[in-house]
Design brief:
The chain has 358 residues and is α+β, with helices and mostly antiparallel strands. Helices cover 43% and strands 18% of the residues. The protein is built from twelve helices and ten strands. It has helices at residues 2-5, 19-27, 29-49, 63-69, 77-84, 87-110, 114-132, 141-159, 166-174, 181-186, 199-222, 286-290, and strands at 237-246, 251-259, 266-274, 280-284, 297-299, 306-308, 311-314, 319-324, 337-343, 348-357. Strand 3 (266-274) and strand 4 form a beta hairpin. It starts with a helix and ends with a strand.
């Protein structure tokens, strides 16, 4: 009979079969490959193309980038500060971070342990977002990479990998019988019994959570949701602390470059000491600043403030305590003083209420 020769209809509901689930995983293949390469390429650059990126003594050392993250990182700033305070810890962290990026990226491209690798990609992207999402003088580069990486990792953790993956090859050719549920949860494939009842609510919660995270970080970093837009990566900024002046005119202060472009340093050309009447009582010009001996500049991080052709060069994230000696004998009277720092563009930062020491 005709009825006996008809082919059963393809099951489209993932509650009753795996075809829809497999179709979603297959359609996500381009996203899986590209996301995988984004992470694996970080490993490839640092280990193969330019090994100096993992060498603390090289100018290309990628640990310098982590110093730039610190000023406006959210949530992970204490951890970053702890790592950056010790050069050996920073190098070990960079090596481990690079290896993890390589393994996650390779696993995604091959489709091996796809769901576990996708969770790793989402967590790595979260670190990028919270640490460097505020950077981007022309475009919101790091923020976009972070939120899109979290979204891609979450999606791939739900779909797994499709036809062109080692997960599928392993399940069909090597593994005997139906894989256990926990193996499917770490690799790929549709859950036993079709779509679990909790799956759709979980997807909704994850989607809303990622959307809220996207909007919240966009607002914190850039004011991109309401109010006035701001960008801490455009104009150089310094935080001045621990200022002090002696009666002989010498000065000490701590400089922290906590804003501005990360592609070049800020150039400090003059540091002045002013009295209560705003009169200059001592001035350290370009010649004095570029001639500072190494013992007069105590840096806190791997990225250092130091003398340059026209004064002091301060990369983003650098922090140092400066000891400045006067070029002539002087005797300052008691009273309040102000330390003023000026860069090559004419921008000025001050630290009022400086203590006067004998």
């Amino acid at each position: 009979m005709v009825g006996n020769n008809t082919t059963p209809p393809v099951q489209e509901n993932s509650r009753s079969g795996g075809s829809a689930w497999d179709m979603a995983a297959l359609c996500a293949t381009p996203l899986r490959w590209v996301t995988g390469w984004l992470f694996f390429s970080a490993f490839w650059r640092r280990v193969i193309l330019e090994p100096g990126k993992l060498n603390p003594n090289a100018t290309a050392y990628v640990g310098h980038e982590f110093v730039k993250f610190l000023p406006h990182a959210i949530g992970i700033k204490p951890l970053l500060a702890l790592v950056l305070a010790h050069s050996g810890t920073l190098q070990a962290f960079m090596i481990c971070f690079t290896v993890i990026e390589g393994l996650v990226g390779l696993a995604l491209m091959l489709g091996l342990g796809t769901r576990l690798a996708a969770v790793g990609a989402a967590l790595l992207s979260m670190g990028i977002l919270l640490g460097s999402g505020w950077l981007g003088s022309t475009c919101l580069d790091e923020w976009q990479i972070g939120v899109l990486g979290i979204s891609a990792g979450t999606l791939l953790a739900m779909t797994g990998s499709g036809t062109w993956s080692l997960d599928r090859f392993w399940q069909k050719r090597i593994h005997s019988g139906t894989p256990k549920a926990w193996l499917i949860g770490l690799s790929s494939g549709s859950p036993k019994g079709g779509e679990p009842r909790w799956f759709r609510p979980a997807v909704l919660v994850l989607a809303l959570g990622i959307l809220i995270l996207t909007l919240a970080t966009n607002q914190v970093f850039y004011g991109g949701v309401w109010g006035h837009l701001h960008n801490d990566s455009k104009v150089p900024h310094f935080a001045l602390t621990e200022g002090r002046v002696t009666t002989t005119g010498s000065a000490r202060l701590t400089l922290y470059r906590d804003g501005g472009p990360d592609t070049y340093g800020a150039f400090i050309t003059t540091i002045r000491v002013r009295n209560a009447a705003s009169e200059i009582v001592e001035q350290f010009d370009q010649a004095a600043l570029k001639g500072l001996p190494p013992s007069s500049v105590k840096n806190s991080y791997a990225l250092k403030i130091g003398p340059g052709p026209n004064g002091l060069i301060a990369p983003l994230g650098s922090k140092a305590t400066l000891d400045l000696l006067p070029g002539r004998a002087t005797n300052l009277p008691a009273g309040p003083y102000t330390l003023e720092v000026e860069d090559v563009s004419g921008l000025k930062w001050t630290t009022p209420g400086v203590w006067l020491y004998k």
